[in-house]
Amino acid sequence: MPAQPEGDPAPSDGALPASAVARAADRTLSLYVHVPFCAVRCGYCDFNTYTMEQLGDGVSRDDYHRDAAAEVRFARSVLDAAGAPPRALHSVFFGGGTPTLLPARELANMLGQARQSFGLAPDAEVTVEANPDSVTAETFDVLAEAGVTRVSFGMQSAVPHVLRVLERTHTPANVPRAVGWAKERGLGTSVDLIYGTPGESVADWRTSLEAALEMDSDHVSAYSLIIEDGTKLAAQMRRGEVPRVDPDDQAEKYTLADAMLREAGFEWYEVSNWSRDAHGRSALENRSAHNLAYWRNQDWWGIGPGAHSHSDGVRWWNLKHPLPYTNKVRQGVSPAAGRETLDAQTRYVEDVMLGIRIRDGLETAQLQPEGRKAVAGLIADGWLDGAAAVRGTAVLTDAGRLMADAVTRRLLDW
Predict the structure, then answer these.
(1) What sections of 122-230 are H helices per DSSP?
(2) CA triple 296-298-299, angle to 5 deg
(3) Is the distance from CB of 278 to CB of 216 less than 8 angstroms?
(4) Is the whole model's pTM more than 0.85, yes or no?
(5) Which of the four pLDDT bands, split at 50, 70 and 90, describes residue 286?
(6) Residues 6+ away with beta carbon under 8 Å from 252
(7) Which domains does the chain have, with CATH numbers?
């Protein structure tokens, strides 16, 4: 797992500077709840997750929902003390790890605490990530009754040998069954895929896309495999046990995904995410509101070990391991390990890096002079939409989505 970022010491009472809440009335507030437990740790994963064997003594999954609920209450007290106006939650996202390793009733209890502490906006999106092997039909009965609106399923691939390389242990046949259970209860569904796994052919990738489309979901995420230092898969690559990721192969697979998804009625709204009109909701309504809050640099509070939070340019992150996290929460003090206040240039860089990835694009007027000068060349290269630029927005073309990082560097004059 990656080391935590360096930063300033975080105050034990969690106190926020006035600048962090000065514009709160004009900003949405979301809640991320990190569930750090997994049955098996996948070889490509560098998230802050633990199997029960890794946790050791002193940490119990059975108590986690109470500790997370305590941090939710703490979050509300900190925002109140800072003078932030009351804000109903724009979105809630249970991620991990594997949230569905916890009993559905415990997820419902945590959501209930969020509702009690903050309230939910009338159109609030509430998402739970799910492993297809750790749910039953009754799971979705409980989640739907609790107010969950959306389930994100970690499918990754439909091809057994690809799943073995990723060390994903779910049974492929369980994915459509679980998606069907969620849809039967009126829940929105997303299917998450990974492409570019060593040994995955284009035909394998097409098979996974076809399987995902057969599930009649309203949202698909397709992410290129990124090999992070410190993961088991990175070590296997260094030893030559598996081939390295091929960027050209990934580009071909991204293009295939976009073509197949578009043919099936999906439209991209972020470089790696597509939604469509389905099940009585528009493509706009089927976008991930929670992830869009990240990409638009809104405010969110991260609950749980290693979770990150952000409030209008102030960012902080919790202690990574569940044991010290739990000890802090039970003492009634902040579990934050550190924090930082972003300067204007850092905030600008992040706005460009995130904003260029979404279909809504960036207002060219917000770009610094070097960025505005770069727009004409990017249009000539076919990477930015000329008509959108005339209307004052920098929007990636289909070709530009493949070059999003290069576009960002040029807009930032790097």
Answers:
(1) 137-146, 160-166, 174-184, 202-214
(2) 155
(3) yes
(4) yes
(5) very high
(6) 202
(7) 18-295 (3.20.20.70), 343-414 (no CATH)
Helices (H), 360-403: 369-380, 386-390, 398-402
For residues 233 and 342, the model is more confident at 342
* Token code pair at residue 381: 């290269």
> What is the rounded end-to-end Cα distance, in angstroms, of the chain?
29
User: How far does CA 102 lie from the centroid of its chain?
Assistant: 19
Say how many CA atoms lie within 13 Å of 117 toward its Cβ: 25
Q: What is the pLDDT of residues 39-93, one digit of tens each?
A: 665 555 556 667 665 566 667 889 999 999 999 999 999 999 999 999 999 999 9
Residues 126 and 149 sit within 8 Å (Cβ to Cβ)? yes
* pLDDT tens track for 365-377: 999 999 999 999 9
| Angle between helix 404-411 and 369-380 (nearest 10) | 140
Q: Token pair of 36, please?
A: 């750090």
CA–CA distance, 247 with 249 (Å, rounded to integer)? 5
Q: Is residue 247 scored above 90 in pLDDT?
A: no
As a whole number of angstroms, the distance between CA 231 and CA 240 comes to 15
